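During the reporting period the student researcher (J.K.) took over the structure-prediction task from the postdoctoral fellow and processed the backlog of single-chain submissions. One of the processed entries is reproduced below for the supervisory committee.
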Amino acid sequence: MTGEDHGLPRVGAVVLDTTRNLIGRVTRADGPYLRLRPLVGGVPWDVAPADLHPLTGAELLSALVAEANARSRRGSGNGSPLGLNLTESGPAPST
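J.K. obtained the following structure tokens:
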């Protein structure tokens, strides 16, 4: 998880914001905070580095599968507990 700047996650790292229980990708570091964005787009937010937890490959896969399952049960991509906004995931499949 650590980068070259004081042990902070690198830009592009996928992490868990433990205060919001949201998964996001690090997009930049500004002052004492990092900017995270949901994995498939959406509203970014700022978080203190101490509130982050790195995701292993297994945790990331588990989070994405859980989100896909929840979306399937709800019938939409709204209200994601993981910070994923699947309504902006791309064009609808052609039939």
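The committee noted the following: Residues 85-95 have pLDDT under 50 and may be disordered.
J.K. will present the remaining backlog at the next meeting.
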